[in-house]
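Troubleshooting log. The previous run stalled partway through. Resubmitting the same four chains, unchanged.
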Amino acid sequence: MDGLGNSASIDMPTASAHRVSSGERIHAHERPGRLQAALQKRGVRLTRQRRILLEVMDNAERHLDADAILERARKLDSRVHRVTVYRTIDLLKRNGLIDELDLLHLRGGQHFYESHGPRDHIHVACLKCGKVREFESRLYEKLKKQIEQDCGIEITMTRTEVGGYCEKCRK
Amino acid sequence: MDGLGNSASIDMPTASAHRVSSGERIHAHERPGRLQAALQKRGVRLTRQRRILLEVMDNAERHLDADAILERARKLDSRVHRVTVYRTIDLLKRNGLIDELDLLHLRGGQHFYESHGPRDHIHVACLKCGKVREFESRLYEKLKKQIEQDCGIEITMTRTEVGGYCEKCRK
DNA sequence: ATAGATGCAAATATTTTGCCGCCAG
DNA sequence: CTGGCGGCAAAATATTTGCATCTAT
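Second attempt completed without errors. Output:
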């Protein structure tokens, strides 16, 4: 049941941060921190709170919003301020290191972030149970090429979010 | 320069509402109002303010946010309240008559709305000049079918937003 | 030493809610 | 007539900004 599409079931964000850890293939960054390395290479100043925030985002197994990031960061070091979370998110966005998602605003108006790897993917959400999974497809890559050609645009970011009812929730 | 892809250049939302009126093919609802007709058929009560709001949305040549809708509505009848705009948007969403877009939050956190026709389309935005155009493609339809199959989901809504730099802005 | 980062408080921006009087059907 | 609808004020949610202080380099 997959073929082209990769998948990773991910729980919807909740205030109570608990991982589902669906095991393998979450993404692929472990100890040193991809984000931290990237910023360092760009000569960005690495402060105590940045290190913590980057670690949180690097190790997140699901899409976190600002609030969830803050919560996790504070478990590591309570001296992290909410404003710093927003400023760090902004820094990472400006450097093109993370993607901002809305996940169809299933639970409010906030944004979710993911440290984006090399491959684009689609977010597929069940409107009933809230599960979100990621999906990659060659067709998607083809579609983007078509858009670039036909619209004469050079694409730098994409966001595809699909909502519907999953197998379980249809029964 | 088109083929599969339909296109319609649309200005980015601005406080000062002025239409670009790129002429033909904006969508396809004129006088009586597709939205109004749809609600009437469903037996929804049609109040003075609803009629106005539906007219505004039916005749919009570009994607409007709540504020722009209010502004236009007030030009027709100043007795329309902001809260009513939100409640009407909610009504239309619940009835599946409009789509909610973020347009990549090019200008803030607000949402944009469009009275959706039968065909899904992709929103392609230039990150520099802010122009948004719509794009339809058979490939997109195929992709959705693939997602339904591979993810076992029954898709009820999709949102694809693409950002990049258009021909003019690359020069 | 110093440019840039953080903390704190307050401001913004956007959307939602409670309550009560009003109007479309 | 009456139940849903709209107005108003206030709350809620999400994010940003000004300014003084601190710190990584």
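Takeaways: The beta strands of chain B are 9-10, 64-65, 98-101, 112-115, 122-126, 132-135, 153-166. The mean pLDDT of chain B is 83.
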